[in-house]
Amino acid sequence: MQPETSEQLVRRLSASFNKQTAMSLIKATMPLIGRGCTEIHLPRWEGIQQQHGFIHGGVVGMIADSAGGYAAMTMTPENASVLTVEYKLNMLAPADGDTLIARGSVIKSGRTLIITKAEVFSVRGEKRTLCALMQQTIMVMHDRGEKSN
Amino acid sequence: MQPETSEQLVRRLSASFNKQTAMSLIKATMPLIGRGCTEIHLPRWEGIQQQHGFIHGGVVGMIADSAGGYAAMTMTPENASVLTVEYKLNMLAPADGDTLIARGSVIKSGRTLIITKAEVFSVRGEKRTLCALMQQTIMVMHDRGEKSN
Amino acid sequence: MQPETSEQLVRRLSASFNKQTAMSLIKATMPLIGRGCTEIHLPRWEGIQQQHGFIHGGVVGMIADSAGGYAAMTMTPENASVLTVEYKLNMLAPADGDTLIARGSVIKSGRTLIITKAEVFSVRGEKRTLCALMQQTIMVMHDRGEKSN
Amino acid sequence: MQPETSEQLVRRLSASFNKQTAMSLIKATMPLIGRGCTEIHLPRWEGIQQQHGFIHGGVVGMIADSAGGYAAMTMTPENASVLTVEYKLNMLAPADGDTLIARGSVIKSGRTLIITKAEVFSVRGEKRTLCALMQQTIMVMHDRGEKSN
Predict the structure, then answer these.
(1) What stretch of H or E contains A89?
(2) ipTM of the complex
(3) Residues 6 or more apart from B87 whose CB is under 8 A from it?
(4) What confidence score (pLDDT) does residue B128 get?
(5) For residue A72, which phi and psi values (nearest 5 degrees)?
(6) Alpha helices in A19-56 (DSSP H)
(7) Is the pTM of this model over 0.90?
(8) Chain D: nearest CA to B113, how far in angstroms?
(9) Residues of B with CB under 8 A from a CB of D
(10) d(CA B71, CA B38)
(11) Helix or strand holding residue A63 (H, E)
C-alpha cells in the first residue's frame, strides 16, 4: 500500500473539518495540516464573546480540542476515525487578541490511544500570548473511517 | 448587609449569561439557577454538529465549562466575578440526543478558589444518558463585579 | 463460563494488590472490594509526611489512583489487566486526619476504556472531610491477565 | 531588599524537601534546582513497585507533583509557601528504567496561581523515554513561609 501523500493528508482532514458545522459557526479555519500537527485559526468577532468582551473560554476549549484531535488524526490510517476520550485545559490569560491560533501536536502515538497537546495563542499585531494549554487523550477507531457524502 | 435573595441571584447570573454572545450563538439557555447549582440547556440543531452529525464535543465542553462557572458564581459576593482556571472533561458517550443538559454544581467553595463539577446529559424522549463529566477549578476575583451596561 | 463469585473477585484483586510493594511501603491496605468499587485505607504515620506534617499530596494521589484502578479491575474479565491512561486530581483540603480512605468507583465501563472517580476522605474520630477528588481513565488489556507467582 | 541568590534558593528548597519524609521513604532526591525548574531523581528499587515489577504509577505521580510544586516554589518570595490545587497526569510508557527523572518547569507564574508542567523520563543506560506528562496548578500562600525547625 502506498503511504499517504501530504496532499492526500490535507484533503482527508479538510474533508472532515468542513463537515463540522460547529467550526464554521464560530468562523474557525484549519490553514495548517502537517504530520503530527495542525493549526486552527479563529478571528475575534462579536458572536463568540463572553461577558467581558473577550473570546469565550468555551470557544477557546473548542478550538484546542479540535486542533489536538486533528493532530491525532494525521497519525491514523485513512480508514480510521478518532474520538476525544478526555482533555484538560488551563486558561493562562484572557483571549483578548484579534486572532486565536490553536496549535495541536502529537506527544505519543499508539495504535489505540494518541496523546496530544494544544497551545492556544492570542495574537495582536506582532504580539503572541500563550492563553491556554491543553493535554488530551484521543482514541483511534480502526476500520471506521469517516464516510464521504 | 442583606443576604441576596433567590430572585436577585437569578437576576445577577442571568444578566451575565445574557451578555455572552457565544451562548446565544449556539442557542444555549440557563433555565435553572440555584445556590450551588445551575443547568444549561442546548437543543440539537444543524449549526453545532461535528463530522458525524452529533453535537460537537467542543460545544459539549462549552456548556459544561459555563455550567460549572455559573454554579461557582452563585457562591460569590455580588461585587465579585469568576474566572475559569482549568477544567478536565471526559467524554463518555456521543452527544446524540435531542437536547443536552449540563448541570453544574459546587464541590468546594473557598474564598479564592471554587471547585466544581458538571455532568452533561444527552436527552432523547424519556431517556437520559450521561455523556460527559467535568471537574473544574474557578478563581474568584473580589471587588471586580461585572458591570451592567 | 461461570461468572466470577464475590469471593473470587476479592481473591483476584487482593493477589494483585499484595504484589504492589509500593502499597505496603506506605502501609496502605484494601479492606473493601465490591463490583464497581474499592476502598484503600491508609493510616497517618511519620514516614509519609510532607513538610508541614500532613500526609504528602503525592501519597494521596497514589491511593486515589490505585483505588480507581482497582475499581476498574472489578469490571474486567479475569484474564485481563488494567493500565492507568491518565488521571486528574483536585486537592480540596489538607490530609490532616488520622486515616485516609480512598474510595474508587466506576463511572462508565467500556470494553477498552473504563472511566472512574475516586474520593479521598480524611478521617479524624467521627469527622470525615473530603480532601481530594480524582477523575481517571483506565485501559483494559485483554488476554494479558496478571500471572500468579 | 536583596534578591535571593541561587545559593539561597537551593538552600530554601532543599530545607523544605528534606522535611518531606515521604520523599526519603521512596528514596527520591532533588539534585537540580534552578529559577523556574527542578529535577527529582528516583532509583528503581524493590520497595516502590507495582504488580508487574515496574515503578508504581502512584510513585511516578508523586515525583511529578513534587517536581512541579518545587518549580513553582522557585518563583515565590521566601516568606511564602505553595499548595497543589490540582494536577493531571498522562502515563505514556511503563516506568521500567533504572532511574526516573521528573523535571518540573514553570509555564506561567502569577501572584496567586502558578501553572507548571512536569515531564517524567525513564532512564536506562543512554536511553531516555518520556513516561509521564503532567500539567499542574499551584497556589501561592503569601506570608506563610515554611518554618525552620
Answers:
(1) strand A81-91
(2) 0.93
(3) A61, A88, A89, B61, B64, B65, B68, B134, B135, B136, B137
(4) 96
(5) -60, -40
(6) 21-25
(7) yes
(8) 9
(9) 85-86, 88, 112-113, 137, 139
(10) 5
(11) helix A57-73
